[in-house]
Amino acid sequence: MNANGLELKILPQDLTVCKVAAVSDIDLDAEFYFLGRTDEELSLVCRTEDAPANTLAREDGWRGFRIQGTLDFSLIGILSRLTGILAEHRIGVFAVSTYNTDTILVKAENLDRALAALSVAGYRIV
Predict the structure, then answer these.
(1) Which one of 5, 55, 65, 90 is at 20 to 30 Å from 28 when CA atoms are compared?
(2) 36-61 pLDDT, tens per residue?
(3) Whole-prediction pTM value?
(4) Domains of the chain by range and CATH?
(5) Contact at 8 Å (CB) between 104 and 83?
């Protein structure tokens, strides 16, 4: 799939990436969150206003966009191409993948620059 076939949807909310001690610290009824657990940590991406008061580490100031639609698992290199373009423009990312799609977070001050670079590369921004 080429860039011209993909639309990127800007998420409207300010986001926070944090590390929490327990799932009980998280509002599981919140409208938007992504939770990841490994043998070493419990990480949360959520709207800034929904971030738990008690975190082990926290970084505010993220904004995000996601690839519209459901991505087939046979598609290869989509996230790599997006993050490669952003890396060429020296824009750091925090990527979150779900069953349906990928979401890319960038620091809020880099959002306009990131979207401009992706637009020039042929991605449609919605």
Answers:
(1) 65
(2) 999 999 999 999 999 999 999 999 99
(3) 0.87
(4) 3-125 (3.30.2130.10)
(5) yes
